[in-house]
Amino acid sequence: MISHFRDASGRQALTSVNRGIEREALRVNANGTLASDPHPQALGSALTHSRITTDYSESLLEFITPVSQEVNRLLDGLTQTHAFTLKHLAGQQLWPVSMPCYVGDVADIPIAQYGQSNSGRMKTLYRKGLTKRYGALMQIISGVHFNFSVSDELWQRLYDQSDKTLSLQDFISDGYFGLIRNYRRMVWMLPYLFGSSPAVCESFIKPGFSGFDFKKMGRGTLYLPYATSLRMSDLGYTNKEQERLNISYNSLAEYLAGIKRAIRMPSDEFANIGIKVDGEYQQLNTNILQIENEFYSPIRAKRVTAKGETPSAALERAGVQYIEVRALDVNPFSPIGIDAKQVRWLDLFLLYCLLSSSRPSCASEEVEMSANLQTVIMGGRQPQLTLLRGEKNVLMADWLSEVFAELAPLAKLLDGDEHDDYQQALQHWSQAISDPEQTLSGQVMATLNASQLDHNIWVKQLASQYHQYFMDYPLSAASQASFEQEAIDSLAQQQAIEASDSMDFDHFLAQYFASTCRHGYLD
User: Looking at the chain, which terminus has fewer C-beta neighbours within 10 angstroms, N or C?
Assistant: First the structure.
């Protein structure tokens, strides 16, 4: 397929990749305990700020980059956001791994607040519902999301080579869903290479939890010898109720139909919580999904939404615009949670998934994909590990070698004659094929074994190092002024939204779900 892009304009179309990063990080005190104070006002409004917001908790920051076509610019921008934030945290630090810091009482985890507007109250109530459904501790696990799309020129080239039986918009959506299916077949490669949560603080494992044959090191570190990403295991964000949804990725239409079913499907378990108890809301509704954002998937089809529009309504209106990769742990060896070699490997992998043929998936393959992912999450560094491929057992290393070999000509094409960044990234990660200790999880375990430090002690040391790095970071006067102005503007925006509300919260929620119903996403 890449032979169609070897000319100058073809290579330009291929290399004009759009990327964005969303990085989550817990605010912690200098002693490594969870910060419990409100989102700092100096950072602006979490409701309206475009780059600095919160996720589940007041203590769980989320940094969002603008879209960029240059890897270094993307990461520099993320670094500047970190630097501005750390300079305004009054000595607090950022927890540099996915699994949370020590939390004594889960009741002390503060749910994110977004002000008194109806939209802000709805965001907080949604999070309260998550607490009631799954518990607060699971919700403060951090991750990195990678947003990815290719250029209009690339899509036009691919469309011109097609039979043109679809409109261009439908062709693009169909192409992105082909990428998604291939990604899901090989998503296990991400926790293998980039999973970095093979160990956790013992305090994270609450009484009564079973099913993991943990080993213990030091005073309070639990680990699985060959695990890669406990964040993606049953310790992480999981919803057993969602296992019966059977969302299809074979087309946009099938996907939307599945989401429609999911957000109207009642749950007996969540009905026991109630919606409004003693006059106080507990959750948005009692369905398996309160809203579609609650649906967990290691990849999502996305489109920027208009005001008041749901994600699915946006997809139905204008098709897929980009995809969101959600299977990345926070990289503890990077101050910003991800590095350039990871980004370039992701570029290669996602382009490969897009340009390769992608048959529809069936029920048996769905089972196979899920089994492979769990195998790698729980024991990916095990020697001679085998996975299922077309109902046959294959060595994971052989499968990796095959894909890396197919990524090589793509890396060379993206680099051109003047650079070798993609080839270097591919070479760097290829070392992990035969040596699992070169994976991020392998490096974490090697560091813990060599230092003889408990996991939390090691992470606290990292947090302090990165805190000093960002405090010393030479943020330019222009960048500083830009962040300060956006903080001021975002607070003014929040106030304007609050002032413009014209109905009470009960009527607002009723109208929201009635509107969703009219668009076909609720009954």
Answer: C
Successive 10-residue mean pLDDT values, the chain, 523 residues: 84 96 97 96 98 98 98 98 97 97 90 97 98 93 98 96 96 98 98 97 80 90 96 78 84 95 90 96 95 93 92 96 98 98 98 97 94 97 96 96 98 94 98 98 97 94 98 97 98 98 94 69 36
Q: Whose CA is closest to 52, among 17, 87, 19, 18? A: 87
Q: DSSP 3-state assignment of 80?
A: helix
Reported as half-sphere exposure (CB side, CA atoms, 13 A), residue 111 has a value of: 18
d(CA 181, CA 464): 41
- Contacting residues for 428 by C-beta, under 8 A, at least 6 apart: 341
User: What whole-number distance in Å separates Cα of residue 520 and Cα of residue 164?
Assistant: 29
Helix/strand/coil for 302: strand
Closest CA to 99 of 224, 198, 213, 227: 198
Neighbouring C-beta atoms of residue 449, cutoff 10 Å: 11
Query: Of 150, 149, 451, which Cα lies nearest the Cα of 302?
Result: 149
Q: Chain centroid to CA 78: how far?
A: 15
Which of 11, 17, 124 lies closest to 69, judged by CA? 17
What is the rounded CA–CA span in Å between residue 403 and residue 155? Answer: 23
- Please say whether the structural domain 2-518 has been given the CATH code 3.30.590.20: yes
Beta strands in 195-235 (DSSP E): 199-201, 215-217, 221-223
In this structure, what is the dihedral angle of CA atoms 346, 349, 353, 357, given to the nearest 10 degrees?
A: 170
Q: Are 285 and 276 in contact (CB under 8 A)?
A: no
